Task: inverse folding
């Protein structure tokens, strides 16, 4: 019964993602189809050369399906990044899509210009991620880093600026950048830091307009 209920849900989800891809890139779905067909064609040619056509067709179908899914996933990720780009809280939506032992607290600090700072706790320690022009968020990051350092004693605190300005990290590269940070803590220490920081109050006012909800970014690779 559970399987029967899950299957329609997955098909509906794939259709929704396909619509997002089509909206962001009209050539996206044809690229997925052509990549799968090209993979199958290569397998057939190899089968003819080595005189193992049936075996190559079976293998080619499986490879074509896999390649199509990979390309579909990559295009979906790009499409969702393009939709999130420029929205208030876009960095938070990307951060919440990270795989692994991460705790993301969106908008721990917001100024009158609706610049945001989000907090991520994980194996590197504490990571502060800002949204907004560099000349405005620099002071916010400094103030938050000073505030958190009183609680996160001896814990490494990183500050990153997410954006399109000079020295900032583009939205599409934010997950990968954080995943590459050094592993300074072990799991018990990470959980301890989470508990310490969970009770900290947020610096408001809240941003105007809704934070992007439901715009899930495909999860990135697990941190090694």
Result:
């Amino acid at each position: 019964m559970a399987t029967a209920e899950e299957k329609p849900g997955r098909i509906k989800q794939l259709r929704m993602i396909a619509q997002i891809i089509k909206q962001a890139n009209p050539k996206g779905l044809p690229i997925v189809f052509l990549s799968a067909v090209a993979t199958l064609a290569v397998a057939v040619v190899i089968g003819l050369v080595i005189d193992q056509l049936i075996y190559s067709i079976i293998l080619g179908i499986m490879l074509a399906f896999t390649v199509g899914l990979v390309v579909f996933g990559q295009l979906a990720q790009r499409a969702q990044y393009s939709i999130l780009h420029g929205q208030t809280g876009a960095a938070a939506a990307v951060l919440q899509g990270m795989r692994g032992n991460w705790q993301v607290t969106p908008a721990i600090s917001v100024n009158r210009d609706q610049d945001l700072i989000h907090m991520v706790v994980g194996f590197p320690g504490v990571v502060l991620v800002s949204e907004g022009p560099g000349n405005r968020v620099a002071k916010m990051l400094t103030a938050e880093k000073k505030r958190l350092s009183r609680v996160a004693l001896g814990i490494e605190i990183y500050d990153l600026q997410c954006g399109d300005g000079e020295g900032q990290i583009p939205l599409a590269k934010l997950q990968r950048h954080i995943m590459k940070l050094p592993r300074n803590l072990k799991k018990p220490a990470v959980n301890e830091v989470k508990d310490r920081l969970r009770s900290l109050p947020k610096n408001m006012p809240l941003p105007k307009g809704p934070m992007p909800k439901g715009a899930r970014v495909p999860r990135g690779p697990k941190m090694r």
Notes: The two ends are 37 Å apart (CA to CA). The first strand starts at residue 103 and ends at 110.
